[in-house]
Amino acid sequence: MDTRVPGTAGRPAPGTVLLVNPNTNGNTTAMMVDLAKERLEPQGLQVVGVTAAAGPAMIVDPASLTESAAHVRDAVRGYLSGPDGGTVVAVIVAAIGDPGRARLHHELDIPVIGIGQGSVHAAAHSPDGQLRRFGMATSTPLLVESLAKLVADHGFQEHFTGVRLTASEPLALAADPEQQFQELAQAVRTATATDHAEAVIIAGGPLSVTARRLAETTAVAIIQPIPSACQLVLTALYQRR
After folding, report:
1. Which of 17, 92, 169, 210 has CA atoms 20 to 30 A from the CA of 33?
2. Cβ neighbours of residue 63 under 8 Å, at least 6 residues apart?
3. What are phi and psi of 47, to 5 degrees?
């Protein structure tokens, strides 16, 4: 997939990008919407966030990932059937495992992009478009197999160096942003020094603020899920023009 975004001379038509948070934490939704607005509003697109009505506050295992797919679909269908649904030109599924994305992609006639999908495509390609080795750093050990499957589903398993984990469990790190940063930074160092990854995805929507901080302070290419998904949204909308 060509993920390059053309110049601003040909902007996508105005509209709304619907960002759905499969986790039930509204604060996380607001944080991810703010990050998406930074990338999409300069291109003339509005961003609206919706939060799953049911499920866990943070997806940490395969069962909750699978369960959340139905909640994502309900949230998207509910918004699209409402008074502002006709303005939506694209959907972002804002959990790294992309729950419900594939089904919505087949059901809707607008682009449906997952932050996992966006991250994998961004990580697998260097700025000049060449394929490169990439890994992931995350705090959810029970999702390692799901993350590996995500990579395989997009055809980049040969370039994937694996998942490196934080020492502490995800809910503890969610309550301690500084510790989250330090432990993810260590996971990134291991991914690059031991696994020889050339780029590292910070794998998790709730980790987005730490992902930005790592991108600003780390020499290696850090892949941030929300901006990566926004880039695929723009690419898809440009291609539809």
Report:
1. 169
2. none
3. -125, 130
